[in-house]
Amino acid sequence: MGEARSPLILTYHSISTARRPLAISPSLFAEQMEWLSQNAQVVPLRVVSDALNRLQPLPMRAVVLTFDDGYRDFYTNAAPQLQRYGFPATVFLPTAYCGQTNSWPGKPSWVEEKSLLSWQQIKELAGRGIDFGSHTVTHRDLTSLTLSDAEQEIVESKQEVERRTGQAADFFCYPYGRWNPAARSLVSRHFFAACSTAAGPVQPDSDRFALPRVDAHYLRLPFFFRSLFTRRFLGYLALRRTARRLRNQPEGFYSKSQPQG
Questions:
Q1: Which residues contact residue 22 at a Cβ distance below 8 angstroms, ignoring those fewer than 6 apart?
Q2: Under 8 Å between Cβ of 231 and 4
Q3: Is 0.90 topped by the overall pTM?
Q4: Percent share of the chain, pLDDT over 70
Q5: Domains in the chain: ranges and CATH
């Protein structure tokens, strides 16, 4: 089968029994975390971004855990599992909606309305070692905004996360995975790295401000999750990317069959 040891950044949304594709059940999540504890090294996002920034070798068989949108079930269903194994994670917050629901404009009708983390919960989790990054203020597609509006979304969200947690918010995640050179340039001025939704492992030449990730929706079957560090898994991701291109879906396309943050 062969081994492929490049680091992977995994993307989760809701850890619950909500409708797919944005939800992974708590039992499946627990099973995945147990497997990682025995077969991978789970590292902070900074470890991978530092390696790219300093042109150093990337860690082998490493996994980064990221969670988009800051669903409240992270507090009840994900954080206890992370604490059990001592795993780091980064949660990306749309700051205007913290303590409310994911009812931002542009949310597809098929996405179930769910509660998001409160600032009190976020501060508590930050004190327990969870990192928080920016997902803009209002979860708007940056490519649809003027530069001034896009920068406002980027900067104000970073400031709010830092004010509320007392910690640096060094990482960004593009809403819906949508970015362009102008958005990337803005993000690079204020953050250390940023996550995209391009499905693939992190490579030595990966763009630090458009880091590829693998959506947990692709990994629902235990067979695929347990194949993370194999060449077979890389082939599986290649097939996913090919299917996306055949459907004429750009990287940030948001559809029921193609989950994005």
A1: 13, 14, 111, 112, 217, 259
A2: yes
A3: yes
A4: 91
A5: 8-246 (3.20.20.370)
